[in-house]
Amino acid sequence: MSTDTVDVARRRFLVNSTTVVGAVGVGFVCVPFLASWMPSERAKNAGAPIEADISKLEEGRMMTVEWQSKPVWIVRRSEKTLADLETLTESLRDPNSEVVDQQPEYAQNAARSRKAEILVLVGICTHLGCSPTYRPELAPVDLGSDWLGGFFCPCHSSKFDMAGRVYQNVPAPTNLVVPPHYYVTDTTILVGQDGEAA
């Protein structure tokens, strides 16, 4: 048999076998690579909406839930607190919540909420990301006689009223963020998703 003779059938078999093995190899490389682009279950859960039961939340009290690794505050406000909000307009940087990315459209009102008595805020200062403290008391010595309750950031002394609106002449540039939320029932709030109000 001559060495110059080409076995076409054998060559075709080797080419086809190599192609199949190469395709399988590419599949073994691509599947884990493409799977790494998908968020993990932990990441999915971190961004998932969270339910908050406010049935036991008393007037003047605040509860905290975690959503997207951030503290979310839920406060039940009194009628007096709501009335006091109207007296602060001149002291605030953005009293009418005109910076639209700070709250959903349904919270662009005087109370910055779906239901006036319930406030829902992300508990992170808009200056450098510290977490302000809840200061509901009236006229404490360290905050002055004109303090009507709200949130005080101890990092750089930014102050926010009981609607999360920022005072003038403090480092924080904007109001505290109102996250998307809606009422599943009268006593259950779903934080992290817009929906129809109950």
Provide the low-confidence segments as ranges: none
CATH superfamily of the largest domain: Rieske [2Fe-2S] iron-sulphur domain
The number of distinct structural domains comes to 2
CATH T-level fold name of the largest domain: Rieske Iron-sulfur Protein
Largest sheet: 3 strands, antiparallel
Sheet with most strands: strand arrangement: 1-9-8
The backbone outline, from C-alpha atoms, is: elongated
CATH class of the largest domain: Mainly Beta
**Secondary structure tally: strands:** 9
Order of helices and strands: HHEEEHEEEEEE
Structural class: alpha+beta
CATH architecture of the largest domain: 3-layer Sandwich
How widely separated are the two ends? Answer: 89 Å
**Alpha carbon gyration radius:** 29 Å
If you average the pLDDT, what whole number results?
A: 87
Helix content: 10-25%
- Number of discrete helical segments: 3
Kindly estimate the percentage of residues that lie in beta strands according to DSSP: 15-25%
